[in-house]
């Protein structure tokens, strides 16, 4: 009887320790707080790079030259943004950050990207058939972009033992859609030192 009680007690203690080991703690952190857990590209990199590069492109002479020549602000579209790095990077969130910075600047007009335009055109076609005439969005009224913004993300990894230096290079170009003239080239670099401990907690 005494042995059975000890066995039951040991089983309960083991189960308790296993449950405690499986528990997790979740807390919210401020969006402006930087947390580099793995050393990989993260949300803060995406926001900072997009902000700095859009600030740069909007501070160059092509913008004032265009406004002076056309008496209106240019219309920009975001084209391909390619991930050529060694790791998975969610390019959709990076593109969203770029689009938000462009739109919120108020210095350029912005039109929907190709994948979004197909859905918008389908909706206008639906309205043409089913919506009241005075409320329909008209066909053939789209605004053509004057410039396209394209970019790539590349990485170089240098490792020695448990130490790694990650180098990210983001390149962007702004191209005049009519003449194919490149009016701006921007580049942003990030270097991260990652040191892994021998014993992982």
From TrEMBL:
InterPro entries: LpoB (IPR014094). It comes from the Bacteria. One of its GO terms (molecular function) is enzyme regulator activity. Keywords: Signal. GO terms for biological process: peptidoglycan biosynthetic process. GO terms for cellular component: periplasmic side of cell outer membrane. Residues 1-20 form the signal peptide. Gene3D superfamilies: ABC-type transport auxiliary lipoprotein component. This is Penicillin-binding protein activator LpoB.
